[in-house]
Amino acid sequence: MSKSTRMTINNCVSFAVVLTSLWTLIRGDTEVSCVYKESCILPCSFQTNETVVIHWIQAAGDTPVHSYYYNQDQLDHQDRHFRGRTSLFKDQISRGNASLHLTGVKSQDQGRYTCFTSTISRNKNSTVDLKVEGSPRYIAAIVCAVSGSFFTLVVFICYYRKCKE
Ligand SMILES: *[C@@H]1O[C@H](CO)[C@@H](O)[C@H](O)[C@H]1NC(C)=O
Ligand SMILES: *[C@@H]1O[C@H](CO)[C@@H](O)[C@H](O)[C@H]1NC(C)=O
Ligand SMILES: *[C@@H]1O[C@H](CO)[C@@H](O)[C@H](O)[C@H]1NC(C)=O
């Protein structure tokens, strides 16, 4: 690969990374990287008042993840996918902390989450972008990309050599 080609590719990659980060920033999302099979905290805070209603929703499909009102967890409508894997920091709720603790992170957990908080005085929605690292799917994608580039490189070199002869 020539130096200028490599420069162009590098610039393209940097540009894509910058664009993605910018998009996340514009949407006002918080990005969280979670490790496959480990536990993870999705941050959310609100201005406290006497009572609070908290709803955590997975944005794609409006999936109910965790709800809390009347001073207790309300999990009747929780999606089966999240059963037994979510909790709030109960002792922190009165301090305006509605962060979600998610355990046994799966690759399907990846995506956007909305945290709705509602008190007598105000409502707030915030969004968290969850990225799952180290999942078999993620590793497969990397292996695929690396072997794909390697294959392209081999073809490219073969082609280049033949042309020169
Ligand atoms: C909420 O509390 C948990 C546990 O103490 C902490 O890890 C997290 O950073 C807190 N989040 C916010 C938004 O205050
Ligand atoms: C709770 O909300 C009420 C109604 O808006 C307000 O008068 C009160 O000051 C608030 N209390 C706190 C602790 O923020
Ligand atoms: C939060 O989202 C819900 C549902 O999309 C909407 O009804 C509500 O008005 C929103 N609240 C704020 C404060 O943005």
TrEMBL record:
SMART domains: IG, IGv
SUPFAM superfamilies tied to this protein: Immunoglobulin
Membrane topology: Single-pass type I membrane protein
Domain of life: Eukaryota
Keywords carried by this UniProt record: Cell membrane, Disulfide bond, Glycoprotein, Immunoglobulin domain, Membrane, Receptor, Signal, Transmembrane, Transmembrane helix
Pfam families: V-set
Subcellular location: Cell membrane
Example of a GO biological process term: immune response
Keyword Membrane: yes
Sequence ranges assigned to domain Ig-like in this UniProt record: 42-133
Signal peptide: 1-28
Transmembrane segments: 138-160
InterPro entries hit by this protein: Ig-like_dom, Ig-like_dom_sf, Ig-like_fold, Ig_sub, Ig_V-set, T-cell_Activation_Regulation
GO cellular component: external side of plasma membrane
Keyword Kinase annotated: no
Protein name per the record: Ig-like domain-containing protein
Naturally occurring in which organism (per UniProt): Anabas testudineus
